[in-house]
Amino acid sequence: MTRACALRAEEVSYEVEQGRALIKEVTLQARPGETVGIVGPNGSGKTTLLRCVYGTLRPTRGRILLDGDDGAALSAKARARKVAVVPQDGGGGFGLTARQVVAMGRSPHKRFWEGDTARDAAQVAEALERAGAAPLATRPFESLSGGERQRILVARALVQDPGLLALDEPTNHLDVRYQWELLTLVRDLPATGLLALHDLNLAAYFCDRLHVLDAGRTVASGPPAEVLTEELLARVYGVRAEVRVHPRTGAPTVVYLPPDLEDVHR
Amino acid sequence: MPRTSPLRRTLVCAALTAVLLAGAVAGLALGSARIPVGEVLAALTGRSGPSPFTTIVLDVRLPRVLLAAVVGAGLALVGTVLQALVRNPVADPYLLGISSGASTGAALVVVFGIGAVSMPAGAFAGAMAALLVVYAMARRGGTMTTGRLVLAGVAVQYVLSALTSLVLVTSSEKEHLRTLLFWTLGGLGQARWDTLALPALVLLAGLVLLLALARPLDLLLAGEEGATTLGLDVGRFRAAAFVLASLVTAVLVTVSGSIGFVGLMVPHAARMVVGAAHRALLPVAALGGAAFLVLADLAARTVAAPQEIPVGVLTALTGGPFFLWLLRRSQRGEGVWA
Questions:
Q1: Which residue of A36, B190, B275, B316 is surrounded by the most CB atoms within 10 Å?
Q2: CA of A128: how far to CAs of A98, A132, A149, B38, in Å?
Q3: Where are the transmembrane segments (chain A) (predicted)?
Q4: Mutate which: A83, A86, A107, A150, vs B, most B CBs within 10 A
């Protein structure tokens, strides 16, 4: 198993054209093994930040450090050995079976002409099992539903044996049970986890720290209990909410309120 | 048996080899003069003395059958690679204008005799240029749609065909008109032992290289971003694959003209039979392409005998409807990857 990776983003900006930045001077840190959530409204730059981290976008300013090495200086292969990605939008595997898509995750550990060994096959089978996708193995990838594809892509990331796992809205297509299974799996992996999440309650429960983006800038960063406040939800999302620490989970829990609901004393 | 099982792949390869060999023997026996199969085999094994049959089999028909196999296999391989590169099953060296580019490049060399540049080198430059232009046009704005890819291919094909015609028709040499017809229609009538070596060599090298590249070709199916996060330097690999596809196409066009649709139909059929993983797909596509073109050329020589039909006409007659069917499926958003 690869050692968990230390991630540091230093004042990272990504500008699409002169002056228009999708993210601006974002600084973020994840210690080895931590699970860090990126939250924020639509268009706040969560995906852009993730892409900069996993290297399909190159920051126009600032840099990404993976175990202290500048991410931009790594080859695609060296980076893929460190960072695995579960993309938001299915990616693809046109005409391949689910198992073949998962097996692609072994690629960064191979010379390009090498075939898959029995050990690779065993790793693929184990990852399919852990992602709850074993019965899907022989199905054509494109015949799968959104949630099933998601689980296949999680299995692909697992066989990549990464030090850092980046997931973009991993719970999007999943029903409640799989959301919990997936996030439990990610949290319990030795790898560092970096997740863009929409569901604030899931983020609060599963993440060690949250990083809140709004219009490409960091507006808060810290443990969920410090970050998720009623004031922040009103300012960033424009919603009225009540945040309480749940007596049994110990995690902050958000309940959204209709704007016209009358105030009651607490 | 699951599509991806190794046993199935072996059986399919064995069956295709049998079809290829049977087609080859038929190709040697049938034609303007019918030669008994016994005589054919005797000639092949060197057990017959010098006779007109031996000459026809060994010096006329054998190089032609071999060329058909080489060209068919090569076109199917290039089609397979192009389909992975553009992630679209509607790709073929002919449809994407690469064959036209090769013809234009070759025609410029033939007519103007540019320095010491050989015809295959001119064809290669033309093929590469056409492929780059089509790719850049189809990708403008980031995403590549089937419609834009096909339009770009057709547009480039038209311009280049017109250019080839212009160059060859205005040339003072009468011979160039025949050359134009040959390149445009595509045929195997110019097969000779001494024109066989280069395409055979390029095909063999291409096949070995592509089999070694099966993994990165699979990664391309995950899309540009997916392939990058799985460790592939997409830009560099794509450039290498473009060069290889252009090279094979160029060499094939100089010996057989523009034979269309083989590179479209065969990889698609092969994918239906053994799945999309390239380690299985490439050999099946190559064997299938070889068998298909050997049989198509046999038909081209015999159906209207003694008149010979250019084999490119036959492949277009079968491939055109197939292409329309594929387009319809892709527009309905049905799984076009079989």
A1: B275
A2: 9, 6, 12, 57
A3: none
A4: A107
Is residue B62 situated within a structural domain? yes
Q: Does B8 contact chain A (CB < 8 Å)?
A: no
In angstroms, the separation between the Cα of residue B296 and the nearest Cα of chain A is: 28
Question: How many folded domains does chain B comprise?
Answer: 1
Q: Is the pLDDT reported for residue A53 higher than 60?
A: yes
Please indicate, yes or no, if residue B336 is contained in any of the structural domains. Answer: no
Asked if residue B338 belongs to a domain, the reply is: no
- Are A56 and B225 within 8 A, CB to CB? yes
3-state secondary structure chain A: CCCCCCEEEEEEEEEEECCEEEEEEEEEEECCCCEEEEECCCCCCHHHHHHHHHCCCCCCEEEEEECCEEHHHCCHHHHHHHEEEECCCCCCCCCCEHHHHHHHHHHHHCCCCCCCCHHHHHHHHHHHHHCCCHHHCCCEHHHCCHHHHHHHHHHHHHHCCCCEEEEECCCCCCCHHHHHHHHHHHHHCCCEEEEECCCHHHHHHHCCEEEEEECCEEEEEECHHHHCCHHHHHHHHCCEEEEEECCCCCCEEEEEECCCCCCCCC
Domain parsing of chain A, residue ranges: 7-227
CATH number assigned to the domain comprising residue B130:
1.10.3470.10
> Which of chain B's residues have a Cβ under 8 Å away from the Cβ of A105?
230
Looking at residue B85, its pLDDT comes to 87
Of A80, A99, A143, the CB nearest to B230: A80
- Among A89-93, A196-200, A233-237, B162-166, whose mean pLDDT is lowest? A89-93
Query: Across the interface, do B216 and A112 touch by the CB < 8 Å criterion?
Result: yes
Domain membership of residue B19 as a residue range: 6-331
Q: Does the beta-carbon distance from A75 to B233 stay under 8 Å?
A: yes
Specify the CATH number of the domain A7-227.
Answer: 3.40.50.300
What's the mean pLDDT in A139-160? 91
List chain B residues with CB under 8 Å of A120. none
Is the Cβ pair B219, A115 closer than 8 Å? no
Say yes or no: A102 contacts chain B, CB-CB below 8 A: no
Give Cα A204 to chain centroid, integer Å: 14
Interface predicted TM-score (ipTM) of this complex, two decimals: 0.90
Hey, of B230, B237, B326, which one would you mutate to test binding to chain A, going by the most A CBs within 10 A of its CB?
Answer: B230
Letter for the amino acid at B299? A
Classify residue B337: in a domain, yes or no.
no
Percentage of chain B exceeding pLDDT 90: 41
